[in-house]
Amino acid sequence: MSVVQPLLDLQEIDGRIRELQKEIRDIPQRKAQELERLNGAREALARAQAEHKNAQLRVNEADLEVKARRDKIQAIKQNQVMLKTNKEFQIFNLEIAKIEGEIDSYEARQLAAMDDVIPVKARLAEADAKLKEEQSVVDGYLAELDARLASVREALAAAEAERAEAAKKVEARFMFHYDRLRTKRWPVVVSLQPDCVCNGCHLQQTPSVGQMVRRNQGLVTCADCSRILYAM
Ligand SMILES: [Zn+2]
């Protein structure tokens, strides 16, 4: 067995740990991407809401115009009671007729505005339903990602426990070098190719380095990248 075999075993576990840690780091970003998918539907709903508000506003405006004119007619009729001549009475009647004409026109406008509200309301309901539908799809993905996160965390805890055991089997001098290098270069332990080339940085090693690696008795490192070398 190679002297670096315990280190290779450790490196295999560390490789899995790195993958799991990367996945844990990536999940929040994946969740954010899922949520971004709702932006289009949210914007469409906001547009439909604004459109509905405007359409409803036009109905209300016409309604206020009608009410104001009805109040005016009411006031005129109250004043008519106090009139002395028939002529004055007729003038007031003409004024009332004119205002009633305006009321007719505002009521027609109000009806048209109410008709306009119908399709706008339908579009609003559609946009609302679409957002809810997309939200439920996204919620499903988010739940999957949360479940994935929980299982990745569990796997990570298990791998870390496994690592603690595997680390006990690695000689201290190997461990020191490996731990120092593993945050800078990955993988740390690489094979030396038959033509004496480091599999990490591809530097040609001297024949004596090749010999030491094949002798398989101690820690041999690449002259350039410092990776630990082992014979294939
Ligand atoms: Zn190298």
Provide a descriptive summary of the structure in words:
The protein is mainly alpha-helical. The protein folds into two domains: 15-166, Helix Hairpins, CATH 1.10.287.1490; 173-231, no CATH class. Helices cover 76% and strands 3% of the residues. It has five helices and two strands. The protein has helices spanning 5-36, 39-80, 86-168, 172-181, 207-215, and strands spanning 189-192, 228-231. A two-stranded parallel sheet has the order 1-2. Helix 5 (207-215) links the parallel strand 1 (189-192) and strand 2 (228-231). Helix 1 (5-36) runs antiparallel to helix 3 (86-168) and helix 2 packs antiparallel against helix 3 (86-168). The model has no long low-confidence stretch (mean pLDDT 95). Bound molecules: zinc ion (ZN). The site of zinc ion has 8 residues, from loops.
- Return the structural class: mainly alpha
Share of residues in strands: under 5%
Low-confidence stretches: none
Number of strands: 2
Give the neighbour order of strands across the main sheet.
1-2
